[in-house]
Amino acid sequence: MSAQAFGLDIGTSSIKAALVKKDGNAFRLESIAVTPSTPKGLLSESLIDFQALADVIRKMLNEANLKITNVVFCLPESQVYTKIIEMPQLSDQELSAALKFEMEQYIPLPLDQVKTDWVVLSRSDSSGKKTMEVMIIAAPLNIVSKYEKLSEMLNLVPSAIESEVVSVHRALLPLVNNASSNMILHIGGTTSSICIVKQGIIKTVVSLPLGGIAITRAVSLDLGIDQASAENYKRAYGLSRDAFEGKIGKALAPILESITGDVKKTMLSFREKNANETISQIVLSGGSALLPGIDVFFTNSLSIQVVLGNCFAAYNMGNVPQELLAQAPSFNVVVGLSLRNLL
Asked: What is the mean pLDDT of the chain?
């Protein structure tokens, strides 16, 4: 088993770190921390901004008494190219060679400008035809180099850098590792990810350019209030029809309806490719999954059971502070990162 590593999720509005330990089959949350992100975060090219980000993270890790140096980072889906393809069954060596040609078809950047990785999701032998499903992932080198530079500044050793959707899938695996087909809908800060999982294996990944920040902006514009107030109202009242004469819910609706439209398209495409198979449930993830009434909204819009994705409950994790249990969907990414070397 690989060395223990903690997860570090550098988001647009917050930074989270988590360390999970495993004793036999039991999981325990050893340490967890969250702090507001710096204004420009990893988007800036300025060394001064980078130093400010490193200082914030260093302070957070010190206060959480996180001494482990191995770290697993995640990349936002907006900065990652992900594609699942079907190929004839090959050995790892043959696959590695074949994917160099396949990736050129699916990655919209020259291969010398990206860092690529791949993982075999499944192998099948149907009607004598041996095939395999492979997930290919590519991230621009200039993005990856920022994480490497940040690691140097913090004296950390990157154990892995993976995409958000992979982390969330791992965090919620016990909830979707069944005979049915399930969907994970992760609503992040700037992007949302739709992930269809069949028998625990990722089958489809779709990224949408809408997230919690767009929802906050919609509330801000509709009510004529600043972004900070809009964020507070959004979290407090969500889709309530009573608060502010339902104005907050009305402001949220267009963005949620847009996400719903993409969910429906993804479900239809999946049904067409899988003998009319339906999705049994949708698992909501991300901070926006906590908006009051959002689960009812998706249930009514999609006529499917919708549940909140709770990484702590999924693994029956011990030592979780009571106040964090109610906020679990917003910690799925960072807990998924920390679980990487434990499963």
From this structure: 92
**238 has which bridge partners?**
none
Collect all residues with Cβ–Cβ distance below 8 Å to 62 and sequence separation of at least 6: none
Distance CA 233, CA 54 (A): 31
pTM over 0.90: yes
100 near 69, Cβ under 8 Å? no
Q: How many CB atoms lie within 10 A of CB 103?
A: 19
What would the two tokens of residue 252 be? 């949220």
Per-residue pLDDT for 89 more than 60?
A: yes
Q: Note the pLDDT tens digit of each residue in 244-282.
A: 788 898 999 999 999 999 999 999 999 999 889 999 999
DSSP bridge partners of 130 = 125
pLDDT digits (tens, 9 = 90+) for 10-47: 988 899 999 999 999 999 999 999 999 998 888 888 88
Domain ranges of the chain: 177-308
Instruction: Report H helices in 155-246.
Output: 164-171, 173-176, 212-223, 227-237
Tokens describing residue 73: 């980072």
CATH 3.40.640.10 describes domain 177-308 = no
Look at the block and give the residue holding tokens 């029809």.
241
Q: How many residues does the chain have?
A: 343
Nearest Cα to 2, choosing from 61, 72, 67?
72
